[in-house]
Structures are given as structure tokens and as C-alpha cells.
Amino acid sequence: FYTNGQCGIAICELLGMTKDEKLREPAERAIGYLLKTQSSTGGWRYDPGRGSDVSVTGWIVMALQSARMAGIEVPEENLRKIERFLDRAADEGGTRYAYQPGEEPRRSMTAEALLCRQYLGWPRTDPRLIDGVEYLTRPENLVNYNKDPGVYYWYYATQVVHHMEGEYWKRWNAVMR
């Protein structure tokens, strides 16, 4: 289901950037499919409508955000379901996240879930987001090309920290670049 999310991102980004109305119908269909296949637990997993994990859900949230930016309506009800799923996957008051509810938090899932939270409306000043980004930008969690080939983590953490701007971004980017 990762592919569905990534293709949704691509078509919605194309629509948003080009404003080519020929892309609207395929973009709306892609997003409609994603919305229709949201599981009862609030997220997405490998099979349509069956289960949720933060990893797959993050890609879908990015597609939904791209859709919104391209002028495609995404119902609030679907977004609230995602929030409830993330609440269940959260640990330490919403500052760390597991792959699935009940598991141990992971850096990669924390970065991905915090990006989802940003897209779902958490402002930069939200204490949970600040605490989570402080965690991501601790020296031991910064990019280390010799020790940790955590490209998935780097991908999401870079976006979260970039949206936070300021000192967080300077700290992360100094090592990432």
C-alpha cells in the first residue's frame, strides 16, 4: 500500500504544481480510493481497509496533504480517524511513536508520526512536537553516515525539523548536508 500513497503524492503534486485540470480527475480518484480504504482503526497497512501502522499511514497522510494543497477536499472525519490512530500509537504523551500501538517507540516512526501531526494541524509551539523534535535532534539521533544508514528515519526527520525551522533545523541540517 506504500505505492498507493506514493502515487497519490505524485499525482496530487503534479496537479498542484501545474494546475493542469486533466490531472484533477485521476488525482481525485487516487485520493478517493485512499479515503475509501482507510481501516476502522484509522490508518492504513498493507491491505486495503485492513489494519494500521504508522509507516504506511504516513505515506497516505502525505498524499492527503498533497491533495489538500492541490485543492482536493479531504473530509475532516478521515483526518480525525488518523489522529485517533496516532494517539493509540503514541507513547510518552505524544512525543514518541511505535510502528503499531502497544509496541516500543522507534526513532523512524516518531519522525514520521510527528510529520503527520504537523500536517494534521499541530503548530510549531505544541509542547509534544517540541519535545519530539528535541529528541530527534539530540546528538545521538543526528545523522551518522558511518554508523546508521537510517535513510527512512532521515527522510522523515528532515521534513519534520525543516518545518520547525530555527535552531532545530540548523542543528539537523549542519549534519545532514
Question: How would you characterize this protein structure?
Answer:
The chain has 177 residues and is mainly alpha-helical. Helices cover 61% and strands 4% of the residues. A three-stranded antiparallel sheet has the order 1-2-3.
Brief write-up:
By secondary structure, the protein is mainly α.
Q: What characteristics describe this protein?
A:
61% helix; 8 helices; single chain; three-stranded antiparallel beta sheet; mainly alpha; 177 residues
The major pleated sheet works out as:
3 strands, antiparallel
Give the SSE order as H and E letters. HHHHEEEHHHH
Global morphology: globular
Q: How many DSSP E strands?
A: 3
State the strand order across the main sheet: 1-2-3
The helix tally amounts to 8
- Ends: how far apart? 31 Å
- Report the C-alpha radius of gyration, rounded: 16 Å
pLDDT below 50 for ≥5 consecutive residues: which ranges?
Answer: none
